[in-house]
Structures
1.
Amino acid sequence: MDGGSEDQRPVVCVDLDGVLNLFDTWRAPEYFHPPRPGAREFLIRLNEAGFRVCVFTCRWFEWAREWLDENQLGAYVAEVTNQKVPAVAYLDDRAICFRGNFEDAYQQIVSFRPFWEAQ
């Protein structure tokens, strides 16, 4: 995990694979899909709106940071982590939002497919 804890802006956590990049299937630990069109502009808008962007990923954070920098996204990301950090929102291609009803959550889980898989 890289630093940035002195920054007091509200945090938004954004997933790397499937959100910031064009993930469609796992290929190898070192393979990173290309950036999703609009990812840079999205990160810029979050920063301009006063958020501190944290990218979360299961990948080794140093490789993820390198990918962000190589794709001109790193300047808009305060932190890269593989841990769930306190945030006002989490943006993930595999997330289900719990709305207080376990049956609804269960149904969403058992029928879940990420948007990038064929429906």
Note: The chain has a mean pLDDT of 92.
2.
Amino acid sequence: MRLAEGIVIEKEKTFGRLKFSALRREVRITDDEGNVTDQIKERTYDLKSKGQGRMIQVSIPATAGEKNFDYNAEVELINPVADTVASATYMGADVDWYIKADDIVLKKSTITPQPNKKG
């Protein structure tokens, strides 16, 4: 069972400041015969979330490109969505949560440069 569109996330309230950590894994495409190909489908990255107080994993499509940001660089998610996958069990169901986004980008500075004053 899956949520049709996932849960749209308010980035700042949910995650707070996000800092880049590392690539966690790459998911490769499987061909019609069940063989794993060299083609990458998506990449999952570890990000430090100030709002969650822990490391989170976020998956982005391979089309967004590989991310090689500096460790602890401040980043932001583009269009993040939380979703679930549920599996029926004898006692009910097990639910796994995951976060997907369209991209991970360096956060733009919100500091406005001050003009030099000559005096």
Note: Strands lie at 7-8, 18-30, 36-49, 54-61, 74-78, 81-89, 92-100, 103-106.
3.
Amino acid sequence: MKLLAILRQRLAWKLFLSYLVIILVGALILALTATLSEPDILGRHISYMQTVMGIASQAGAGQSGAALANNLRDNFVAAINEILLVATTVSVMTAVAVSLFTAKRIVGPLRDMTTVSRRIAAGSYHQRVQMPGEDELGTLAQSFNQMAETLEQTELRRMALIGDVAHELRTPLSSIRGTMEGLVDGVLPAEPSTFLDVQREVTRLQRLVHDLEELSRAEAGQIPLDLHPGDLGALARAAADRLRVQFDDKGVCLQVDVASALPPVRMDASRITQVLVNLLGNALQYTPTSGCVTVRVWAGDHQAFVAVHDTGLGVSAEHLPHLFERFYRVDRSRSRAGGGSGIGLTISRHLVEAHGGRIWAESPGVGQGSTFTFTLPEVMPHSKRAS
């Protein structure tokens, strides 16, 4: 029983046994066929030989014919058995060779995948398997490596997120701790302004936690969208009016340019408003006094475009591909208090992509302003939808 269990667990033995069963069944069929067809076939051949040799016309032909028939039958059966024995032996040896070759081609890569998968499970996410070829095993190895690459990138993002969150929490917590120690030691007066400083840091922590929750849901694709056809131009105007007071306080002009006859787009109005507010807030933050921010909305190529252009600090080319990464900052020396949580653009990217659109940033260079553009698919006309 133990030997049988081992054989069942070994793919090489399974292949060999399958070949052996096929050979034995084939040999059995040949033997049965020869046994069943032997009397009729031999009878016809013996009669033919007797006719050709003239045995039937001689005396005692009956006795000689019977002896000849028995002799031919015995020799024929012996020859068939010998041929079947040799063929079966050769077939078994061939089955062993073929099973060993097939097992090497199949079991070898599978054994490598098993070893690598155990190493990945132990935390070595950089492990990869060799590509055995372009067949099904090669496709399996390619898929396995893609899975390992995804796991490695996920682990890297997890470690980066832990470091980023720790860095984000350190500043407000250190400020709160310093203020409280000053109050306990009597260095700071117990005045409303002191407690307001603590309240501002707590508000920053609450905002950071909320942004992290939003980011977590966005990256997991778990933000629900209430999609309905809507007017993107009206939404852009409403978002601009919402922040216009802040623009006026800083002395930055805000303009909205919406194309006429703008087709409706299928969107979640509250989520796209969140994207617009993030982009406008980002533009306001990096545009100096007397600068200008322009929001343009237009349509083309079965999609609607929204561009937020500012005359602010601009971005160098090496930073553009990374602007939508979480916690990424062009100027690392800027304080978190003046720059937000650093994940607003990341959340915006996920929201736009969840709508089936895309978002990107452009800038001629440092000091020459920047433009953030995103697209949303148009709602097809009723006649096209019906077709």
Note: Strands lie at 228-230, 253-258, 265-267, 292-300, 303-310, 359-362, 370-377.
4.
Amino acid sequence: MRMLYIDYSQRLTMVNTDLMFSSLRLDWKTPKWLYAKLNEEFNFDFDPCPPDPSFDGLNIEWGNRNFVNPPYGREIGKWIKKGYEESLIVFLIPSRTDTKWWHNWIMKAKEIRFIKGRLKFDEYHNSAPFPSCIAVFKD
């Protein structure tokens, strides 16, 4: 497994501490610039987690080259497991190295790219209250 440390510090702002310990927010809209950079590298053909609450990406077949920014709640392990079983998957996820899903699935990734600092997700003025990473699973 290859691990990278990526410096996106020019995109960072102050941390929103109001959300620091909250699980009320599960969907974090991918920053457009980050998606564009990853899409340029991987040429995605499917996103099973579009910002549409009625879309159930867990219960459908995924594409060949998938970008996945899953809901960040207790169900995240199901998304990671499904991604592990699919072909090319690039996850944008919280860097939760203390969880079962991290050790059961993410540690099997081809690459883990840790993002320096905190991402500023679209539709928010402040940075996320957690660290993020990119996990790449290749067939």
Note: The first strand starts at residue 2 and ends at 7.
